[in-house]
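pipeline: protein-struct stage 2 | run 1193 | Bifunctional 3-phenylpropionate/cinnamic acid dioxygenase ferredoxin subunit
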Amino acid sequence: MIPVCRTEDLPEGGSVRIEIDETTPAIAVFHTEDGFYAVDDTCSHQDASLSEGWAEGCFVECPLHAALFDLRTGAPTCLPARHPVRTHEVGVFDGMVHVRPAVREEAVA
């Protein structure tokens, strides 16, 4: 797992964007009242950073066109987004938030 930040550095309602390397899409990590969640940072509708969106409960609203995603599943809950964003495993160990990036599925030829 990749260390992200200390729990006290990401207040409830806050988010942070992490970039791992040039082959892994950026990840947005959110601290909600239910815990920590991580999804791909780019909205599936258009190129917008979800970490710059508005989080409420277990949902994040895209700042560009107001698509809403469930942070628990990555599923869009309203248009214009039609496709989910990928979710990532999050763990908290010794006061530190960690993310395990999901394995990217390769296209089948």
